[in-house]
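Structure in, sequence out. Go:
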């Protein structure tokens, strides 16, 4: 049981959720709190942290908020130490901090591409490395990938490449960390209603997803959080290195639909 690992006397497992103040990360934070985890919420956006803190702050014993940019190596190390100190143990990490870009490949700048890779790939790597150093023997990491890392979605040259890298990084970490009993998996959401999609998805993009997703709707943060919580939990004790699409059937679909 995750609840039996860690420092003596601390029964509740503890996790860090990056990007945990908004969208999918906030949904994961809520779900883990209700599943009995302590949660350290990391986010780069102070406004989102303030809003999440206003919503969840009354559970101040069990949830802590840290302003952290996951691309800042020193800040990631310091916030990992702070969370481990606050909770007396660490058992899990969910890498949900991420940024999107929807642009044709020949209009995508090198600067945009590098920024996407920095946040979505290097940020997940830095947080995973810092947390793995604290995990000892046992624990789990869940990366939030995307179906755009599994398929060639139009306009996703940088974003899709970054999420494809997350899939491969998941496999490498799963193999390297297996001897220490640490599992690493990726959840690859299809389109989900969050502030990110509210900002990026035009009516045309929404219509395209509705046509391409067999279940013909966007997912909810609760649906992504449920699968993430499962992979983080000991219920998934023999699952590592996997990418699980939570996508209403998008990746299963072919061209013939009628
Ligand atoms: N919403 C979707 O349809 C969808 C689909 C597939 C994958 N995803 C992925 O899910 C994750 C969460 O997306 P979301 O839709 O909830 O977006 P969101 O914008 O609602 O939440 C992302 C959070 O990450 C934070 N963040 C961004 N850069 C950061 C950094 N450098 N350091 C720390 N925090 C940072 C933001 O401040 C924000 O609070 C992302 O990795 C995204 O790529 C989302």
């Amino acid at each position: 049981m995750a609840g039996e690992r860690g420092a003596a006397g601390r029964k509740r497992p503890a996790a860090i959720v990056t990007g945990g103040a908004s969208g999918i990360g906030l949904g994961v934070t809520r779900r883990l709190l209700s599943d009995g985890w302590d949660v350290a919420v990391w986010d780069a956006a102070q406004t989102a942290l303030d809003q999440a803190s206003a919503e969840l702050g009354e559970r101040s014993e069990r949830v802590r908020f840290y302003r952290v940019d996951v691309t800042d190596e020193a800040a990631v190390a310091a916030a990992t130490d702070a969370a481990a100190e606050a909770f007396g143990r660490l058992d899990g990490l969910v890498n949900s901090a991420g940024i999107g870009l929807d642009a044709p490949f020949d209009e995508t700048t090198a600067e945009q591409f590098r920024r996407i890779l920095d946040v979505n790939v290097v940020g997940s790597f830095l947080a995973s490395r810092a947390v793995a150093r604290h995990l000892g023997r046992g624990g789990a990491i869940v990366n939030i990938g995307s179906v755009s890392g599994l398929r060639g979605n139009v306009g996703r040259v940088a974003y899709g490449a970054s999420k494809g890298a997350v899939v491969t990084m998941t496999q490498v970490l799963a193999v390297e960390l297996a001897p220490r009993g640490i599992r690493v998996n990726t959840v690859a959401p299809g389109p989900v209603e969050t502030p990110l999609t509210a900002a990026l998805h035009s009516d045309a993009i929404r219509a395209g997803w509705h046509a391409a997703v067999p279940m013909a709707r966007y997912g909810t943060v609760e649906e992504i959080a449920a699968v993430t919580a499962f992979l983080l939990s000991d219920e998934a004790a023999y699952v590592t290195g996997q990418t699980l699409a939570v996508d209403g059937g998008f990746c299963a679909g072919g061209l013939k639909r009628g």
